[in-house]
Amino acid sequence: MKEKIGVIFGGRSAEHEVSIESAKTVVKNLSLAGYAVSPIYIPRRGAWRRVAPAALAGGRLAGTDMEPSFGKESFMLAGRPFRLDAVFPLVHGSTGEDGILQGFLELLDLPYVGSGVLASAAGMDKALSKDIARKSGIPLLPHVEISGRDKKSVAAALKAARRLGLPLFVKPAQLGSSVGITKVKAFNDLARAVAFAFQYDWRVLIEKGVDRAREIVCGALGSPLDARASVCGEVRPKGRHEFYDYEAKYLDDNGIDFLAPAPLSVKTAGRLRALSVAIFKALGCCGMARVDFLMEPGSEDRFYFCEINTIPGFTSHSLYPTLWKKTGLDPVKLSHRLVRLAIERQKAKSRLQTVR
Ligand SMILES: Nc1ncnc2c1ncn2[C@@H]1O[C@H](COP(=O)(O)OP(=O)(O)O)[C@@H](O)[C@H]1O
Ligand SMILES: [Mg+2]
After folding, report:
1. Shortest CA distance to 232 belongs to which of 261, 259, 258, 257?
2. Is residue 92 classed exposed, middle or buried when 0-12, 13-18 and 19+ CB atoms within 10 A define those classes?
3. Quick one: pLDDT at residue 242?
4. Is the CB of 98 under 6 A from ligand 1?
5. Of the candidates 217, 350, 348, 340, which has an alpha carbon nearest to the alpha carbon of residue 287?
6. To the nearest whole percent, how much of the chain has pLDDT over 70?
7. Ligand 1, from 125, 169, 279: best to mutate by most atoms within 8 Å of Cβ?
């Protein structure tokens, strides 16, 4: 009998729409890999629902309401137990990529693709992931963290940030999709950028900026003990996009050029690939992650870890699957590999001693 895989998508972040597109692609690829696939949609509000694969492919999201269950099976569908062998969470951003959904799946005792609670939460937090990267000797841009909105904390942070020079990038600690991010080119604009980022989070980072940075991305795949890296790619924001902002990411069909493999020397690409695996392991990631670096234009020696995405986009033109395709692993095999890793992890976990 075919193994049954639930693909969980949608969710409550700004990346709701891209998640739907990711799900369409992964559902198709898992079917081609021989699984029985159940798309599970999390609407912005209301009950989770099972959508028929053909409906999802046609962009229709109506379906049957589901409920979590703590019995033998993890879900109930139309009042009946609904068996799944594993799930593939494809919910980007808050509540999907930050450990919250992963914790819920742990309680349901379901094997799931991707990182566990701790690595997901650490990966989502730009301050914490940088702290962990620093401990592993991974090069970083200096930043100032502001964790209080009171006048004194903000004034002290603004003062410290001046020492970093211009430009600066101000960002909420835990978000994605470039939401809440400002490139600051004059110190007079800094306070406003900080206030804007505080609309999205109660912790904010002011980071030294790299002007016209090259953006290099690399895919990591595997377990914390045994991971490997894809070729590196390069994202080049185009036209009026001064950096890889929300619009360039999602609204402008022509917002970026993506070069894979990235035009880098073999030596630099090798170093970035090794660093991607190092950060994946340092955070204790599992399954997949896309690691993003910033590089000074004109000097391949000066590059910095920017962030890690533990649930990268999975549409047919998304960076992560494209990187693996260019490395020789097609999207069908990639999805299959990720499901196997999820099931292997669950088996390894069930062999651990527990004290009851
Ligand atoms: N320190 C920096 N120097 C130059 N560009 C930056 C810097 N930080 C962020 N950016 C730009 O902003 C984009 C989004 O920042 P990032 O930290 O990746 O947040 P997000 O999680 O929203 O993608 C990056 O892809 C890059 O274009
Ligand atoms: Mg980013």
Report:
1. 261
2. buried
3. 80
4. no
5. 340
6. 99
7. 169
**Does the fold of domain 143-208 match that of domain 4-114?**
no
CATH classification (class only), 123-138+212-310: alpha beta
Fold of 143-208: Dna Ligase; domain 1 (3.30.1490)
Q: Where are the domains of the chain?
A: 4-114, 123-138+212-310, 143-208
The answer to whether residues 258 and 235 touch, using CB atoms and an 8 Å cutoff, is: yes
Taking all residues of the chain, what is their mean pLDDT, rounded to a whole number? Answer: 94
Query: According to CATH, what is the number of the domain 4-114?
Result: 3.40.50.20
Active site residue 15: yes
Residues 31-67: tens digit of each pLDDT: 999 999 999 999 999 999 999 999 999 999 999 999 9
Q: Which pLDDT does position 285 carry in this prediction?
A: 98
Rounded to two decimals, what is the model's pTM?
0.95
Q: How far is the CA of 175 from the centre of ligand 1 (A)?
A: 11
Whose atoms come closest to the Cα of 177: which ligand? 1
Give the Å distance between the CA of 145 and the centre of ligand 1.
15
Between the CA of 177 and the centroid of ligand 2 the distance, in Å, is: 6
Average pLDDT over residues 218-222: 98
**Span 270-304, pLDDT tens digits:** 999 999 999 999 999 999 999 999 999 999 999 99
Average pLDDT on 184-202 reads 94
Distance from residue 73's CA to the centre of ligand 1 (Å): 41
Which of 164, 175, 211, 306 most suits a substitution to test ligand 1, by most atoms within 8 Å of the C-beta? 306
Reply yes or no on whether 335 is catalytic.
no
